[in-house]
Write a sequence for this structure.
DNA sequence: AATGAATGAGGCTTCATTCAT
DNA sequence: CATGAATGAAGCCTCATTCAT
C-alpha cells in the first residue's frame, strides 16, 4: 500500500494522475448515482460531472455495473476500516454497539451522497445481482450484521442488554439508525448535524419510548 | 367511498368487467414491479402477467409512470383506510400508536409483494418525480407521519411517552417498524409470521434494549 | 410444414404478414451483407432496405449475429435441397459430380447476392465463431464436402476418375467452381450467363489444360 | 530499386532503426489482421504485438487503412519480385505457368499468415475501397492475371495448352491454386508441406480428373 | 520519435408508446 | 375495447485517432 517510496516517484507522475482521475470518476459516479439512482444515471452524466469523455470512463471501469461495484467496494472498505477501529475502541459490548452507532453517523456526515445511494439501492436490494460482485457486498454487510449480533449476544450474557433475542435487538438497532440516516439524507436534507438529537436516538434505542415499567 | 349503488346497475356488466380488468392489471404490475423494480420491469412483463396485450394496458393507464402511481394510490387508499380504523380503535395515544404498529404488520402480511416494492422504491425516493403525481403520495405519507407525530406529542403530554422530542420518537418508531418489515420481505422471505417476535419489536420500541436506569 | 390447411386461414392474415416481413428482412440483410460485408453493414442499413424501423428487426432476430446466422441457414437449406435432388438425379459418380457442378452454377445465378456474401465471408472463415450457430454451418459444408469426396472415391474405384487422391480431386473441383463463381460475382459482375463457358470449365476439371500425354 | 549506398550511410543509424521499427509494425499487423480479420483487429492489438504504443503506429502509418494497404503493398512487392524471377526462369509458356504455380506455393509456405489474410479479405474484396490505394492493389493483381493470361494464350498458340479460351484456363488455374492454398491455410492448418500433393494438384490442372477421351 | 490517456462519433440493442386492424 | 406489430429515441459501449508530455 505505502511501499513504493523510492521508485514510485519516477513512475508516479502518470500513475498519480491516473489514480486521481479514477477517483474523480468515482466521485462523479457517486454524485450521479446518488442523485438519479443507478438505472437513471447515464454514463454521460457521470462523464460530464467528472469532466471526461464517456470513452475515458471505460479505460478505468469495464462497464456501468463494474463502476457501480467499485464505488461500493471503495466506500465499503472505508467504512469497514473506521468501524473496525470504533469497535476496537469499545471495551464492553454496549460500548462497541454505541461506538458503531455514532461512527456510522460520523460516516454519514462524511459521505452523505453515498448514504443517499445506499438508502436508495441497499434497503431491499442487497440480493440484487448488480450488487453481487466477486467479493459480494451483500455478504460483506451480512458479515457485519453477524458481528453486530454477536455483540448483542455477548451483551445479553453480560447483562448489558435485556434478554431479548439478539436478532430483534439487531433489527431495532439497524432500523433506528438507518431510518434516522435516511431521514437526514432525504427529507431534512439541509438540516445541520445535531448531537443532542443523535444522543436522543441512541437513548431511544437503549431505553425506549415509554417509561420503564415499575418493577424491573 | 365504497359503492355507487344506483347508477352502477345500469352500466354495470361492462363496468364491472372493466373494473376487474383494471384490477388484474394493477395486480400484475404489483407483481412485476415488486420482482424487478420499477425501471427493470417491462410493460410487456406486466401485460403478460395480466394476460392482456400491451396496448390494452394503455387503455387503462396513460403511461408506465401513471400505472405505477395508480398502483401506489390504490394501495395507499387501502392502508389509509385500515390505519384510520385502527387509530380510531385506540383510546390513548399509546394505544393508537400500538394499533398502528400492529396494523401495519397486518398490512404487510396481506400485501407482501407491495411492501417489497415499497422497500425497494420508497425509502429514499419519496421525492422522486415518478412518485409525485397529482395527489402526491409523498405528501400523503408525510401527512400520515404528521398525524403520528401528533399522537406522540399527545402521548408525551399525557405522560405515556418519555419526554423526548416527538420527531425522534417518530423516527425510532418508523425505523424499527420499516426495518423489521424490510427484513421479512427480503432476507427472511419465507419465514412465517411470528407474533412473539412482533411483540418483542414493539416492546423494544417502548422500553429499549437496555435495562432501565435505576433512578427513574 | 404444409399441414395447416383449414385453420391456417383464420390465424393466417397476421402470420402470413409476419412471415413475409421476416423474409423481407432476410432479403434486405442479404443485400446489405453482400454489399458491405458483415462487419460494415449496419443494422440501420438493413432496416432501411427492408423498409422497417431498426427495432422491428429485433422482433424477428435477437441480434445482428443471429440475423446473419438465420440468413445463412435459410440459404443453406435451399441449396442442400436442390443439391440433394441433383445428386439423386445422377446415376454414376461422375454424373453426380457433374450435376453438382451445374446445379451450383444454377444456384449461383438464382442467388447471386448470397454467393457474393459467401465468397466474402466463407472462404477462410468457416471456422469463425460468428458462423458457428447451433447447427453449425461450417459443419454442414464440411459434411457436404465429405459426401462429395465419397463420390470421387467411388468414381475412382469405378474407373471414372483417374487414380488421384480423392481429396485432391475435391480440392481441384471446389477450386475451379468457387473461383469461377467468385469471378462472376465480382469482376465480371454484369456478364450474362454463358453455358459454353460453364461447359468449358467443367471440361477443364475433367480433362485438364494440356493435351493428354501420349500413352494412356 | 535496391540501394541508396552513398546517402544511406550518413543518416543510417536512425534510418535503419526506423526501418526496423516500421517492419516490426508491419509484421505485427500481419499477425493481427491474419488472426482477427481487418475489422476486428484493433490498432491496440497491433501496437501490443509490435511492442510499441498506439501513437507510434501513427507516426509510421496515417491510418489503419493505410497500414493495411502498406502491408499489402509490401507483400505484393515481394511476391511480384519472386514471381518475376520464376517467370523469367521458364522458357516456354507451360514452364512459366508451372513455375508460377510452384513459386506461389513457395510463397505461401514463407508467408502463411499473409495468405490467411489474403484468403479472408481478398477473394471478393478486391474492389473494396479499403484495398484501393493510390497504386491500387486490385489493379496490380489484375495486371498479373493479364500477364498470366498472355502466357496461356501463347501456350495455346504454341500447342502446349488445349484450345480453350485463355480466360477459362486462367480461371481454372487460379481456382485450383487459390483453393488449395486456402485449404492449407485454414482447414489443414498444421499439415506439413507435401510436394507430392502439390504435384498432384498441378497434374490435375494440366490433365484433369478423368481419363483422356479415346480419340484425341 | 515514443507514449498512452483522452476523445467522441458511431454501432448495437432495448423498450415505452402508438395505431391500424 | 383488445390486439400486438411497428416505431424510434435513448442508452451502453467500442475503438480509430489525436495530442500533450
Amino acid at each position: 500500500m505505502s511501499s513504493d517510496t523510492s521508485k514510485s516517484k519516477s513512475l508516479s507522475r502518470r500513475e498519480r494522475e491516473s489514480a486521481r482521475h479514477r477517483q474523480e470518476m468515482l466521485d462523479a459516479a457517486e454524485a450521479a448515482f446518488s442523485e438519479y439512482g443507478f438505472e437513471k444515471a447515464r454514463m454521460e452524466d457521470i462523464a460530464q460531472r467528472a469532466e471526461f469523455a464517456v470513452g475515458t470512463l471505460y479505460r478505468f471501469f469495464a462497464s456501468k455495473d463494474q463502476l457501480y461495484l467499485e464505488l461500493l467496494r471503495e466506500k465499503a472498505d472505508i467504512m469497514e476500516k473506521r468501524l473496525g477501529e470504533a469497535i476496537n475502541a469499545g471495551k464492553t459490548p454496549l460500548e462497541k454497539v454505541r461506538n458503531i452507532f455514532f461512527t456510522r453517523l460520523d460516516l454519514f456526515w462524511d459521505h452523505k451522497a453515498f448514504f443517499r445511494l445506499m438508502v436508495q439501492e441497499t434497503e431491499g436490494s442487497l440480493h440484487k445481482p448488480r450488487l453481487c460482485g466477486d467479493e459480494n457486498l451483500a455478504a460483506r454487510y451480512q458479515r457485519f450484521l453477524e458481528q453486530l449480533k454477536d455483540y448483542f449476544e455477548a451483551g445479553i450474557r453480560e447483562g448489558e442488554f435485556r434478554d431479548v433475542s439478539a436478532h430483534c435487538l439487531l433489527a431495532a438497532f439497524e432500523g433506528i439508525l438507518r431510518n434516522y440516516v435516511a431521514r437526514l439524507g432525504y427529507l431534512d436534507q439541509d438540516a445541520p448535524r445535531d448531537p443532542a438529537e443523535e444522543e436522543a436516538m441512541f437513548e431511544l434505542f437503549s431505553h425506549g419510548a415509554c417509561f420503564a415499567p415499575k418493577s424491573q
Notes: Residues 4 and 12 of chain C are 10 Å apart (CA to CA). Chain C is about 70% helix and 0% strand. Chains C and B do not touch (no CB pair under 8 Å). Residues 13-14, 42-44, 54-55, 58, 63-64 of chain C lie near DNA strand E (CB under 10 Å from a C1').
